[in-house]
Amino acid sequence: MELAYIPSPSRGVLYLGPIPLRGYAFCIIIGVFVAVWLGNKRWIARGGRPGTVADIAVWAVPFGLVGGRLYHVITDYELYFSPGRDWVDAFKVWEGGLGIWGAIALGALGAWIGARRRGVAMPAYADAVAPGIAFAQAIGRWGNWFNQELYGHETHLPWALHITSSEGGRVPGYYHPTFLYESLWCVGVGFLVIWADRRFKLGHGRAFALYVAAYCTGRAWIEYMRVDDAHHILGVRLNVWTAVVVFLLAVTYLVLSARRRPGREAVVEPGASDDPDAGEAEADAGDGGTKAEAEDTKADVTEAEKAEKAEPESEPEPETESGPDAKAGIKDTADSGKKG
After folding, report:
1. Measured CA angle at 131 (ends 267, 42), to 5 deg
2. CB 165 within 8 A of CB 172
């Protein structure tokens, strides 16, 4: 008998009064709200308008959900299109099955569309929402706990996850809670991005690239522990290969971007500085991290303004006398010449 373990929920459905809500969907919804809330605070602290993050998220979130589902269905197509399976299940997102790689890729496309409509640079927006996305992933992983899925190898550690369901080929027992490992890792990634952004003034998409690189590092490690069915290439799980490739792309972007465009954007949203509501919101923006970002952004803008005003002004030309007094002086000079 195990002395300690993490119990699995008896059911994967929560009830808000008479309304049923899948635990998996609930975790995703909470994660989205956290990401938008924190992203909005960071955006305001960087000099943007309140509400811009939410407006762009209206595009990014649906695209991200579709992308995450597409990646899952494509990479695990046999779960939906093999003999004896019902292809309609491919649309049942609430039952689980979202691939983070597809969610980030298509979500970025949706964010790009929303950013263009708002006249905002995509890299600046990505930097603002990066830690919020990491925290959203940390919350979303608990949806796997509700569904009793994506666990690791069998273990007898005190924090083992007790799987009780036998549906879908599950074998009841005690396993590594890989959902918890990834959730904790994502929390660490979120705080890492906040710290690094404050310490090094990351801009032009580098905060987002750091989030991607850090997440991929943990995902590759955790993926090795999982026992769910997956496609393999050269004996290695597909998601491990994906994590390695995306990690290399993120690190490459970090290095090249730092060389070509060091520092942070002085202006993240044109015209936001003229909006009185933005100024009030910036004064109220969140914790020490966002306040520090606001101070850094103000310093950058001030330096840019000083540089523009530093151009030497041309000295005024000496004024030439005119009027009655000048004429009198000319007459006196002429008279003195005659007398001489």
Report:
1. 35
2. yes
Which stretches of the chain are assigned E, i.e. beta strand? 6-7, 13-16, 19-22, 161-163, 173-175, 232-233, 236-237
Q: Using the structure block, give the residue that is written with the tokens 């465009």.
A: 261
> Looking at residue 229, what is its pLDDT?
82
Structural domains counted in the chain: 1
What string of DSSP letters covers 161-172? EEE---GGG---
Note whether residue 328 is domain-resident: no
Mean pLDDT in residue range 49-64: 97
3-state secondary structure 130-148: HHHHHHHHHHHCHHHHHHC
The kind and range of the H/E element at 88 are: none
Which structural domain range is residue 109 located in? 12-166+185-298
Q: Do β-strands 19-22 and 13-16 pair in parallel, antiparallel, or remain unpaired?
A: antiparallel
- The answer to whether position 324 is within a domain reads no
**Residue 3 pLDDT level (bands cut at 50, 70, 90):** low
Residues 6+ apart with CB under 8 A from 229: 76
Domain presence at residue 201: yes
- pTM metric for this prediction: 0.80
Residue for token pair 């373990």 = 5
Whether residue 171 is contained in a domain is answered as no
Other Cβ atoms less than 10 A from the Cβ of 295: the count is: 11
What is the tens place of the pLDDT at every residue in 102-118? Answer: 999 999 999 999 999 99
